[in-house]
Amino acid sequence: SMRDVFLNLRPVWVNDSNYLIAIFLGILIAIIFNKQLYGYYRTLTLFDAIGISFFTILGVQKSLNYESNTYAAIIFGMFTAVCGGMTRDVLLNETPLIFKKEVYATACLGGGLTYILLVHLDLDLSWAAFIGAAVVFLIRMTAVKYRLYLPRLD
């Protein structure tokens, strides 16, 4: 939605109520089962990494389709990936990962940049998307596994 607003587009959920139903069901499940979900932290982290991988590339692609410059497209890819989780965390009264020292948005930027570079090198778009998403996933999961964090600017 944030990306679409910046691109002067109408967000898809405005026209299709199924998106809102899915969002509210997800919020309701997260609120009801909040304590139980902590037991599945590793699984949720894995699926979150997969999600941000795909959403990053989809955001870059959509931005390019609407004639954004390459730098803006990379930023919009990151927005696409992190804004949903950020909204979720705020609704759950938690500090969003993007505001912590986690390697999260940085992973999205790395994958978006990789995708752009591969497209400019005329790699098949499907392969560029797969490799760009893989870069996001690998950066994020490596950071989680080895407890790598960004430096704090205190």
Number of strands: 0
Look at the helices and sheets and give the structural class: mainly alpha
Mean pLDDT: 90
Order of helices and strands: HHHHHHHH
Low-confidence segments, given as residue ranges, are none
Most strands sheet: none
What is the helical fraction, as a range of percent?
A: over 70%
Q: Quote the distance from N terminus to C terminus.
A: 31 Å
Number of H/I helices: 8
Q: What fraction strand?
A: under 5%
Overall form: globular
Rg over CA atoms, rounded to whole Å, is: 16 Å
Description:
26% of the residues are buried. It is built from eight helices and no strands. It has helices spanning 2-6, 12-15, 17-32, 34-37, 41-65, 70-91, 105-120, 125-145. It is mainly alpha-helical.
Keywords:
single chain; 154 residues; mainly alpha; 8 helices; 73% helix; globular
Structure described in brief:
It is built from eight helices and no strands. The protein has 154 residues and is an all-alpha fold.
What secondary-structure arrangement, pairings included, does this model have?
Elements: H1 2-6, H2 12-15, H3 17-32, H4 34-37, H5 41-65, H6 70-91, H7 105-120, H8 125-145
Helix pairs in contact: 5-6, 5-7, 5-8, 6-7, 7-8
